[in-house]
Amino acid sequence: MLTERELQISPIVQESVLHNTKTLTTLHNLTASLFGVGAGILGLESYLGFVFYLVFSLITSALVYAFRVRPGLIQESHDPGKSSMERYFRSSIELWTGGLFEGLSGFVLTWTLFYGLVRA
């Protein structure tokens, strides 16, 4: 957590944090539909389909962390208070599980649609 002095020197803009959250949620919603297409075409059923969604959603979050968040943390590592994930998101949990439940309905819809189209 940043101290008051650090926030005065380099304030965190809440609008930017909110924008990052919305962008991540949109990404999870779009990829959830793509994962549903993949699970339907592969013919996955029951728990295997949900495990497929969970694994690939976590991979998506890991890729966002690796290519977007981590380089920003490395560049700002010379400032001790700025190397926190809270500069980009409200918490680190939000990065990993933020869009997990929001994208679930889109996943299930496209999963059942493409499963029905392939198996018909």
UniProtKB/TrEMBL annotation:
Subcellular location: Endoplasmic reticulum membrane
Transmembrane residue ranges: 95-118
Domain of life according to the entry: Eukaryota
Main location: endoplasmic reticulum
GO biological process, one term: autophagosome assembly
Bilayer topology: Multi-pass membrane protein
Name by which UniProt lists this protein: ER membrane protein complex subunit 6
Family membership: Belongs to the EMC6 family.
GO terms under cellular component: EMC complex
Keywords, in A-Z order: Endoplasmic reticulum, Membrane, Transmembrane, Transmembrane helix
Biological source species: Hyaloscypha variabilis (strain UAMH 11265 / GT02V1 / F) (Meliniomyces variabilis)
InterPro entries noted in UniProt: Emc6, EMC6-like
